[in-house]
Amino acid sequence: MQLQMCHAIEVLEQTPGVLDALLRGKSAAWLNARKTPESFSAIDVVGHLIHAEKTDWIPRVRIILNHRDTQAFEPFDRFAFRDWIDGKPVGALLDEFAGLRKQGLQDLHDLGIGDDQFELPGRHPEFGRVTLGELLATWAVHDLSHITQIATTMACEYRDAVGPWKTFISILK
């Protein structure tokens, strides 16, 4: 499927509700579960998504629109959220993410980006040349990736508890 803004927005609009349904009211055992000591927990993912809303997606869209590839994006610190999410309840973090996402999508709408702008060049500090379309597609896929990460991490908490059914449950493989 080629990028179509309306399809990407479907994912981006629904992500806060999906995360809310998965995580609001969950115990610390679910929220802090990790596949490995270095991997993100569900609460880490929410913090990471909040940080990305503040510093990554729309700021990078604006850099492309205003400077094309003459100005590189600021490097994104995937772990910058850790100190400021400490001790915050999941409900507050989910609410903050929902508010930031709503504002980000409003900003995207206000920018009036059309399909003809998808090829506008930007400059990623690591990858080099990228396009606006690639950035927008990545935003939606990034959400889906983290939703999958949360579901997989939670499912793996019961990897042994499911006994022989593990053979038939693909998320546990």
| Largest sheet: number of strands, sense, barrel closure | 2 strands, antiparallel
Strand content: under 5%
- Estimate the global geometry from the Cα principal axes: globular
Poorly predicted spans: none
Distance between the termini: 27 Å
Q: Give the helices and strands as they follow along the chain.
A: HHHHHHEEH
How much helix, percentage-wise, in residues? 55-70%
According to CATH, the homologous superfamily is: dinb family like domain
**Average residue pLDDT:** 96
* Architecture (CATH level 2) name: Up-down Bundle
CATH class: Mainly Alpha
CATH topology name, in short, is Four Helix Bundle (Hemerythrin (Met), subunit A)
How big is the Rg?
18 Å
Count of DSSP strands:
2
How is the largest sheet built, in terms of strand order? 1-2
Count of helical stretches: 7
Structural class: mainly alpha
Write the layout of secondary structure elements.
Elements: H1 5-23, H2 28-31, H3 42-55, H4 57-67, H5 82-85, H6 90-111, E1 121-124, E2 128-131, H7 132-156
Antiparallel strand pairs: 1-2
Helix pairs in contact: 1-6, 1-7, 3-4, 3-6, 4-7
